[in-house]
From TrEMBL, chain A:
Entries under PANTHER family matching the protein: GUANOSINE ABC TRANSPORTER PERMEASE PROTEIN NUPQ, SUGAR ABC TRANSPORTER INTEGRAL MEMBRANE PROTEIN-RELATED
First-listed, main subcellular location of the protein, grouped into a coarse class: membrane
Annotated compartments: Cell membrane
Entry keyword Lipid biosynthesis: no
Gene Ontology CC: plasma membrane
Pfam family, one: BPD_transp_2
Name of protein: ABC transporter permease
Topology term for the membrane: Multi-pass membrane protein
GO molecular function terms attached to this record: transmembrane transporter activity
Record keyword RNA-binding present: no
From TrEMBL, chain B:
Organism of this sequence: Candidatus Weimeria bifida
InterPro entries named among the record's database cross-references: ABC_transp_permease (IPR001851)
Pfam family membership, one: BPD_transp_2
Location in or out of the cell: Cell membrane
Domain of life of the native organism: Bacteria
Name by which UniProt lists this protein: ABC transporter permease
């Protein structure tokens, strides 16, 4: 029984660590997509957030400041994306692809320029990272240590789900942003400034994606490396589609993915005879199966991807 | 009055201007990091143009990017965004390598069979996603992303499998010499040891694709579905069938790209530690090429050359990531060129209006 609880703790701990980066980025993506702006650039925003987060914590000696700086860096790229998609009426996929080049390119370029041509930032000591909870309360390796004692930002990301759900469905801003993604012309006749709403949403999406990236470098690992993000931004987008463009749906998608990840790492750590490469496929195959069997077709916000051009 | 076709109406001029802006932004960044942009750019361009051998290498580098570019560009025609070219490229190269290692065929026939296997693997990888879209309405972007990763781990699994893995290194065995696409006769002429048939194959594919899209009924149906699914259904076109076929063809093109790369370059597949990104870069090539098959040839050449030249930047201690930033900026400016187009149109319109006013005033 004890070993069962401990193994469960390990699986959950793996889930808790691998969910937040996806979740934060996915919540960002929901904002953007729901307001009618496709944001394929989440990946690039996460990468710049990961880099700036690590550098911020390295210089300020404070994980939380690094975390927020990472979010701000993502927001700067969000501004670039918003300028292209909202002000210029650009093709949103093209603009997002550009962000995916600029973000990682800039992160690595700056890293090499700042740290003597190295593509890694210096490793952060534990006290510069985001703090873990309940230090010394639980015995090392126990269920409580692995689950409740995880990084505090994990719970921050979960609380954000509730906050963002509230914003989406219980505030006028939420109503406006959902309307902007469905019928921008109707919004404008009601006096809602579609440009402003979309700007706000894309900026928020950049901020959240940046936080997601910073979580990786400030919790999961303790430095920026070229491979810290690779692909997670796209998984976050997949989770949003999975969750039918709602914050709570995206949360479920990320949890499912995180759970599979936790299961995978525990299985391979316990010396499973199945090849680690096959185990690594689990999250992707499970996602596909769940989609085919239970979820089915989703509906994309009606005005998603369509630039809105103000009529004079 | 004759309407003059101005260069500002087309897209070409905006691509050229975007490329110039891309290099300018790159230069600003280099200066602010204390790196000499003149030295960096001259190293980049010398690395591409200073010797015939380098130019040939740029063509060799370009071939797989042209293929993934074609794959993405083709999918855009029906309004599908093939973000899955990455995975299709991987299964294509995997199929090519397996047939290349274990097949026993004479030269010329052997690579042909490898290419057929790669095309089939890529097409299957794309068609499954198409099937899920048609039968269960599952958003293809999501399944493409999942299938990219499944392909990635599948490749790693096969590479490390007993019988496939080479001794003492983490790659597959080399394909048989009969399966290689290297054109031996050109090696002494060009000085490039990896000169291969890839670029020619890619060019032929591009021309065929152009023909299919522009000159056949199928191409017409593709474009019709891309413009409006409901309208084309009304006109008697089965959009499901068009989606399936086009997603399979798109996958096939990326799969062929995988075969070009593996049979032409190293002749084996390494264990991946990160996505190699040929497919994602295909998105860029397709966009720079204006999603036109012929445009993809030039965009692929530009991209391949930049990648090849970028590798030499380490010689002058400049981060090669500057190439990615330049590329990103170029795409960004291509994206927002719509705004410039509107502004230029506005200015032209104002000029016309003024001329009209003047003419009217004179008459009066």
């Amino acid at each position: 029984m004890d070993t069962f609880v401990n193994v469960l703790g390990l699986i959950l701990s793996g889930m808790l660590i691998s969910t937040p980066p996806l979740l934060l980025a996915a919540l960002g993506s929901v904002f953007s997509e729901k307001s009618g702006v496709v944001n394929i650039g989440i990946e690039g925003m996460m990468t710049i957030g990961a880099f700036v987060g690590a550098v911020g914590a390295y210089y300020t000696h404070n994980g939380w400041i690094g975390f927020l700086l990472g979010g701000c860096a993502g927001m700067v790229l969000g501004l670039v994306h918003a300028f292209a998609c909202v002000t210029c009426g650009a093709d949103q996929t093209i603009a997002g692809t550009a962000i995916n080049f600029i973000g990682p390119g800039l992160a690595l370029f700056l890293c090499k320029a700042m740290f003597d041509n190295s593509s890694d930032t210096p490793s952060l000591p534990t006290e510069y990272k985001i703090p873990k909870l309940f230090k010394g309360v639980f015995k090392s390796g126990s269920f409580g240590y692995n689950v409740f004692g995880t990084y505090s930002a994990v719970w921050v990301s979960f609380i954000l789900v509730a906050v963002i759900w509230f914003v989406f469905y219980k505030t006028s801003f939420g109503m406006r942003l959902r309307a902007a993604g469905e019928h921008p012309e109707a919004c404008e006749t009601l006096g809602i400034d579609v440009f402003k709403v979309r700007y706000a949403c894309v900026l928020l999406s950049g901020f959240l994606a940046g936080l997601g990236g910073a979580f990786v470098t400030l919790a999961t690992v303790s430095q920026f490396r070229p491979t810290v993000i690779v692909g997670q931004g796209f998984i976050a987008i997949a989770a949003v589609i999975f969750g039918k463009f709602t914050p709570q749906g995206a949360f479920l998608g990320c949890l499912l993915f995180g759970l599979c990840n936790g299961l995978k790492s525990v299985l391979s750590a316990m010396g499973s005879t199945v090849s680690p490469n096959i185990l690594s496929m689990i999250p992707y195959i499970v996602t596909i199966l769940v989609l085919i069997l239970f979820v089915g077709a989703g509906r994309v916000p009606a005005a998603n991807g369509k630039p809105y051009i103000k009529s004079k | 009055m004759k309407t003059k076709v101005s260069i500002w109406d087309g897209n070409f001029i905006y691509v050229i201007l975007s490329i110039i802006v891309g290099f300018l932004v790159g230069a600003i960044l280099l200066v602010s990091a204390g790196i000499d942009p003149g030295l960096t750019y001259s190293t980049l361009f010398q690395g591409i143009f200073s010797r015939p051998k380098y130019i040939v290498y740029a063509f060799v580098y370009a071939a797989p990017y042209i293929m993934t570019g074609l794959s993405v560009a083709f999918s855009f025609k029906t309004g599908v965004f093939n973000i899955g070219a990455e995975g299709q490229f991987v299964v294509g190269s995997l199929a090519a390598v397996l047939v290349g290692i274990f097949g026993n065929f004479p030269p010329v026939i052997h690579p042909l069979i490898c290419f057929v296997a790669a095309a089939a693997a890529g097409a299957a990888w794309g068609a499954v996603v198409g099937l899920m879209k048609i039968k269960r309405g599952i958003n293809e972007v999501l399944s493409y992303i999942m299938f990219n990763w499944i392909a990635y781990y599948l490749s790693n699994y096969v590479v490390m499998h007993k019988g496939v893995k080479a001794q003492s290194i983490e790659t597959t065995k080399n394909v048989k010499d009969s399966a290689r696409t290297i054109i031996k006769g050109l090696i002494p002429v060009t000085g490039c040891t990896e000169v291969n048939a890839g670029f020619f194959i890619a060019t032929i594919c591009a021309i065929l694709l152009w023909f299919v899209i522009k000159k056949t009924t199928f191409g017409y149906q593709l474009r019709a579905v891309g413009l409006s699914k409901t309208a084309s259904e009304y006109g008697g076109i089965s959009s499901s069938r068009i989606f399936m076929t086009s997603m399979a063809i798109s996958g096939m093109l990326a799969g062929i790209g995988g075969a070009i790369q593996t049979l032409g370059m190293s002749g084996r597949i390494p264990q991946f530690s990160g996505q190699e990104s040929f497919g994602f870069d295909g998105i860029t090539v397709a966009l720079i090429g204006g999603t036109d098959p012929i445009g993809c040839i030039f965009a692929g050449l530009f991209y391949g050359a930049m990648k090849y030249g970028g590798n030499k930047l380490t010689l002058v201690n400049a981060p090669k990531e500057i190439v990615n930033i330049i590329m990103g900026t170029i795409i960004f400016f291509i994206a927002i060129s719509l705004l410039f187009k509107r502004i230029i149109k506005g200015v032209q319109q104002k000029k016309l209006d003024k001329a009209k006013e003047l003419a009217e005033a004179k008459e009066a």
